[in-house]
Amino acid sequence: MDRIIFKQEDKIGYLTLNRPDKYNAFDTEMLCEFEDFINARMYDNSISVIILDGGDAKGFCAGLDMETFGPQIFAMQPADAYNAQARLSRMMLGLRKIPQPVISCIHGAAAGIGFSLAMASDIRILAENAKFCAAYINIGLGGADMASSYFLPRLIGSGRANEFLLTGNWMSAKDAMNLGFASRMVLKEEMLETATGIATVMTNKNSLGLRMTKEAININMDAAGLEACLQMEDRNQMMLAFGMQVNQDKK
Questions:
Q1: Residue 228, SS3?
Q2: pTM score, whole prediction
Q3: Structure letter (DSSP) for residue 99
Q4: pLDDT score at 247
């Protein structure tokens, strides 16, 4: 059985995590499939937006499969374990690097990797039963893992982020909305429809404009200051305006 399912409808791509019997926990095969998906999207101009969801599982993603993948990592030599850790964490970088904005539809538990996948997405839509946990610290590791210490303070502020990362406590859907972590909370059965509506609005925009907007947002999260931010925005706007003029001249 495929660990992830991908389908395309017009310019929207639908990516579904597909280990419902394991709460969509990641094993080696799922990691490999996700890496292949990211690599395939990097230069895919046929898709403008990606919608990520947890399918029929009881929750979005329970994190690392501690029955298989977890013990495998702990049994590895340090260098091999580091490589495995790096591959897992680079999934978050991959979601940020692909040109398509990613909309995550999250229901039930999003723990560990699941939490980080949600954080690495560009837009988050929650079901009323969604909840989030930096579960790494609850299994004897540090709470800062899979880019959680990068994303969460930027999304909700360092005060509450510190609390969730240091305690491993759950963040409810209500908390997530109040803290600005997500943009919408709807019934579970309405999540994909809501996400598709947002994605459809995006697909009616200039696809290069979408890509460059995502790129600018990500780069300017770490901008050295206002001037660096403005330089990025100015470059993007002039490139897009010039491209529009060239296309008009060709007509």
A1: helix
A2: 0.91
A3: S
A4: 62
